[in-house]
Design brief:
Blueprint (H helix, E strand, L loop, with lengths): L13 H24 L14 H13 L7 H15 L15 H20 L9
Length: about 130
């Protein structure tokens, strides 16, 4: 007997979405730690670096800090807001990923997840006032 027209979706509020995204990020971190212990190797039998997260964060920060971007000032303000939400002190807003502490990276990722949740709740068809 088949079940027809059964909706399997569940609506989450913003806090539940944020908790879910943060839990997924924690699971990824745990998997990264497990993979560190089991040294992965590429096709040429060289160890594979475990800095995928750092590379992704470095790429994001480089894109946001690109002075050749027309929207550089807005990108810089948005990045500052992200660092502020993460609780990272203003003096540390310009550091590279390799200079960040694990606590700062964690706080930044949690803040980024918070932004993801906020964006998912934005109205779909925004219209600028004329």
């Amino acid at each position: 007997m088949a079940i027809d027209n059964f909706d399997m979706t569940v609506n989450f509020n913003a806090g539940q979405r944020l908790c879910g995204l943060n839990k997924i990020a924690e699971i990824r971190a745990e998997m990264r730690e497990i993979n560190k212990r089991v040294q992965q190797r590429d096709k040429k039998n060289r160890p594979v670096p475990h800095t995928i997260m750092d590379k992704e964060l470095a790429r994001f920060l480089a894109d946001m800090r690109d002075k050749h971007d027309k929207k550089y000032e807005q990108n810089n303000r948005a990045l500052s807001a992200l660092f502020y939400l993460a609780g990272i002190k203003t003096a540390r807003h310009g550091v590279d990923v390799v200079e960040m502490t694990d606590q700062e990276k964690r706080a930044l990722i949690i803040a980024m997840n918070h932004f993801r949740v906020m964006v998912s709740l934005f109205p779909e068809r925004l219209t600028l006032p004329v």
